[in-house]
Amino acid sequence: MTTTPVLQAINETTASQQGHPPLGVMYEWLTTVDHKRIGLMYIVYALIFLVIGGIEAMLMRIQLAVPNNHFVSPQVFNQLFTMHGTTMVFFAGMPILFGFGNYLVPLMIGARDMAFPRLNAFSFWVSAFAGLLLYFSYFGGSGLYAAGQAPDVGWFAYAPLTAKVFSPGHSTDYWTLAVFLSGVGSIGTALNIVTTIFCMRCRA
């Protein structure tokens, strides 16, 4: 009994999916340009940083729960304030919106994928690297005692908090680079979504 090309392709696809080792599955996710997978990775990435930002908020609330509390030092509180605000805006709120946009927009307008699939993947990994770079400042941003120091420049990094006198070491540099790279990823994804909507919408 001969099988049609369609059935043969389905059988080969099913067999390849069942026989993939864990490393193969991981490689597929890391190198994917599929808008659904990238959307899911954005959402998972945002939820992870949402948990981290929530823990930082909880630590600040414990410090503010009672007067004259010494749960954390003033320096650590400033670091938590900066990291919480940056995390929630740039690495939780924005990525989860891009995740839903990546997943749903092509489906809603009848497109097979985003207009620029490789730019889509590039934007996600740039954003992911930005989040890791921000938190690497705990290890790489040498502070006053040559130890890791997170940024402590508030939500907006206004002077004079960004000056060397108030923020010794390279913690502010890590913050600046992380926000810049997050902006690169966000602009790439936003342009991709807009181009997809205007140029790949199915005709009514």
From TrEMBL:
<dbReference type="Pfam" id="PF00115">
    <property type="entry name" value="COX1"/>
</dbReference>
<feature type="transmembrane region" description="Helical">
    <location>
        <begin position="42"/>
        <end position="66"/>
    </location>
</feature>
<keyword id="KW-0813">Transport</keyword>
<dbReference type="InterPro" id="IPR000883">
    <property type="entry name" value="Cyt_C_Oxase_1"/>
</dbReference>
<feature type="transmembrane region" description="Helical">
    <location>
        <begin position="174"/>
        <end position="200"/>
    </location>
</feature>
<dbReference type="InterPro" id="IPR036927">
    <property type="entry name" value="Cyt_c_oxase-like_su1_sf"/>
</dbReference>
<keyword id="KW-0249">Electron transport</keyword>
<dbReference type="GO" id="GO:0022904">
    <property type="term" value="P:respiratory electron transport chain"/>
</dbReference>
<dbReference type="GO" id="GO:0020037">
    <property type="term" value="F:heme binding"/>
</dbReference>
<dbReference type="InterPro" id="IPR023616">
    <property type="entry name" value="Cyt_c_oxase-like_su1_dom"/>
</dbReference>
<keyword id="KW-0472">Membrane</keyword>
<dbReference type="GO" id="GO:0015990">
    <property type="term" value="P:electron transport coupled proton transport"/>
</dbReference>
<keyword id="KW-0812">Transmembrane</keyword>
<protein>
    <submittedName>
        <fullName>Cytochrome c/quinol oxidase subunit I</fullName>
    </submittedName>
</protein>
<dbReference type="GO" id="GO:0004129">
    <property type="term" value="F:cytochrome-c oxidase activity"/>
</dbReference>
<dbReference type="GO" id="GO:0009060">
    <property type="term" value="P:aerobic respiration"/>
</dbReference>
<dbReference type="GO" id="GO:0016020">
    <property type="term" value="C:membrane"/>
</dbReference>
<feature type="domain" description="Cytochrome oxidase subunit I profile">
    <location>
        <begin position="29"/>
        <end position="204"/>
    </location>
</feature>
<feature type="transmembrane region" description="Helical">
    <location>
        <begin position="119"/>
        <end position="138"/>
    </location>
</feature>
<keyword id="KW-1133">Transmembrane helix</keyword>
<feature type="transmembrane region" description="Helical">
    <location>
        <begin position="86"/>
        <end position="107"/>
    </location>
</feature>
<keyword id="KW-0679">Respiratory chain</keyword>
